[in-house]
Every structure is written in structure tokens, then in C-alpha cells.
Design goal:
Length: 227
């Protein structure tokens, strides 16, 4: 049987905070296709970092919890400074993202020579976020598009492919939903070509429990709209 080649010109960047029950399985699947992974342990109080290292990831540590924006920034800087990777793939630790989607997005970036590929759960019907979450997410799209000048269909999707030259323009300062708008703003400011790609997000009971509450999300949206 002929083996399928792995994606060797990309590194996954995985923010990690108290995911010890799932991170081993998430990384086992991811590393079948993406052998290069850096997990940023963002002050976890469980065995997340140990499980990630055992699964073959490089683990970088924050001594205290700084938030997902800071974890992404640390991971991106690690790849830029310590590797010669062409692409960075931001990838969640909770099992929502599909490795096949990440691989297809890297393929799109190569094939069409684009610098940024944003995953979108709204380009097909596979993802079922629920009515209230859909409303919040669509509002986030409107806010982000208004502030960045881009025309995305899904602004707060954590699955992204970022080419090295685009990643050099990222300097994240925000956290929670705000960092997702900030990264779109900074990537848009590079002026480099971008595309969207349909992705399937899996909303499990685990991922829903770990995710941002709808009320908190609404509060952050209000802050973004009226800032």
C-alpha cells in the first residue's frame, strides 16, 4: 500500500489550556497528517502539557494563563523563529477542528498561491451551531467585516492557514472573542491574497462546555460594536 505523504511544510499551532482528557487523541489524529505541532500550554493546572509532549508535540509553556490570543502569538513566534515552515495552521485543542479540513486548506494555499486561508463553517451545511450561537457568530462577522474591510462569512473560526510572510504581520494583544477580530484585522492589513474554505466544526458536549458562553460572547460583541 502506498502511504499518503504528510504535510511537512506546515506547523500546527495549538493553544492548550486544561485539555488533558482530549489532547492526546486530538494530537494523535493531527500528527498522522501534520507531523510538526507546537502546543502552547497556557498555564494549565492539569496534565495537558504532559499529554501533549507524550503525543509528540513540541510544548511551549506560559507560567500563568494569559488567554488564547497570547497563546497563539507565542506559537506563531515559535514557528517563525525556530523553524523554516512555509505555513502555520492555527488549530484548536478540543477536537472541534477536522484534520482533513486543515490539509485541504494548506493545499488551497499552495495551489492558488494565497497567503491566508480562513476556515468558514457557513460555506456549507455540515456545521450545526444552533440558532442563538449562529446569531452571535453572524453578528461577529458583521462587526469584523465592518472594522477590517474584509468580506468574510465566518470571522471567528479558529482554523486558519497563514503563510510565513502573512504571519510576520501578526502581533496579538487581545483575548476572548476580541483576539479573533484582531487577527483578521492584522491579516487583512498585510494586503496579501486570501480565501475562505468550508470547514466542519464538531460541537460535542465537551467542546460546548469548554467554549465561550453565549452571554459572555454577546457582552464582548457589544464592547466591539461600541468601542
Amino acid at each position: 500500500m502506498t502511504s499518503v505523504p504528510t504535510v511537512d511544510d506546515a506547523w500546527l499551532v495549538v493553544p492548550l489550556y486544561n485539555e488533558e482528557s482530549v489532547i492526546g487523541d486530538v494530537l494523535a489524529l493531527a500528527r498522522e497528517r501534520f507531523p510538526n505541532v507546537v502546543c502552547v500550554d497556557d498555564g494549565s493546572t492539569d496534565r495537558s502539557a504532559e499529554r501533549a509532549a507524550a503525543a509528540g508535540a513540541v510544548v511551549v509553556h506560559h507560567s500563568v494563563n494569559l488567554g488564547q490570543g497570547a497563546a497563539l502569538q507565542t506559537g506563531i513566534r515559535y514557528v517563525l523563529e525556530q523553524t523554516d515552515a512555509t505555513y502555520i495552521v492555527t488549530f484548536d485543542a478540543d477536537g472541534q477542528h477536522q484534520v482533513s479540513d486543515a490539509e485541504s486548506m494548506v493545499d488551497l494555499a499552495r495551489r492558488e498561491d494565497v497567503a491566508i486561508v480562513f476556515g468558514s463553517r457557513f460555506l456549507d451545511e455540515r456545521t450545526k451551531p444552533g440558532l442563538l450561537k449562529r446569531v452571535v457568530l453572524k453578528t461577529a462577522v458583521w462587526v469584523t467585516n465592518r472594522s477590517t474591510g474584509l468580506r468574510l462569512t465566518d470571522a471567528h473560526n479558529g482554523l486558519r492557514v497563514i503563510r510565513r510572510d502573512a504571519a510576520e504581520g501578526i502581533n496579538l494583544r487581545q483575548d476572548r472573542m476580541a483576539h479573533a477580530t484582531e487577527v483578521v484585522d492584522q491579516l487583512g492589513a498585510t494586503g496579501l491574497p486570501w480565501r475562505e474554505h468550508p470547514v466542519h466544526l464538531l460541537y460535542t458536549e465537551y467542546s460546548k462546555a469548554k467554549g465561550q458562553s453565549l452571554l459572555n460572547s454577546v457582552n464582548i460583541l457589544v464592547e466591539l460594536i461600541f468601542k
